[in-house]
Amino acid sequence: MKVRLSLNQRYGVYLENDPMPHHPSPIDHTHLDNFTGGDKALQDEVIDIFIKNAPNYFAALETSSPQDWRTALHRLKGAARSIGAKPLALLAQTAEKAEPKDYEAHRCALRQEIARLKSTIAR
């Protein structure tokens, strides 16, 4: 039985497990503070680097073999974890195990989470 992923109800994405039953903030600010030693300028810099590199991850996901798909998602997951973007990291982790027929649904969910992350940062 498939369970609708709570975070993605708006996007019509169905996954076997629900890694995010609640709608957590796109960024764990405690993690980001610890990662950067509380340096706000450094936080802005690492988030900016992440956002600038995001299109590269998605480009790899658009034209990838299953192995390339997993590699790109593994990189995205690690980068997301490093800045405390836990919901994005969980989506990437789930997508890493996806079947090719489900790739587009995962791409959609990942794009939406990146958009949510960007809108939170812009506030």
Automatic annotation (TrEMBL):
<dbReference type="InterPro" id="IPR008207">
    <property type="entry name" value="Sig_transdc_His_kin_Hpt_dom"/>
</dbReference>
<dbReference type="Pfam" id="PF01627">
    <property type="entry name" value="Hpt"/>
</dbReference>
<feature type="domain" description="HPt">
    <location>
        <begin position="45"/>
        <end position="119"/>
    </location>
</feature>
<dbReference type="GO" id="GO:0004672">
    <property type="term" value="F:protein kinase activity"/>
</dbReference>
<keyword id="KW-0902">Two-component regulatory system</keyword>
<dbReference type="InterPro" id="IPR036641">
    <property type="entry name" value="HPT_dom_sf"/>
</dbReference>
<dbReference type="GO" id="GO:0000160">
    <property type="term" value="P:phosphorelay signal transduction system"/>
</dbReference>
<protein>
    <recommendedName>
        <fullName>HPt domain-containing protein</fullName>
    </recommendedName>
</protein>
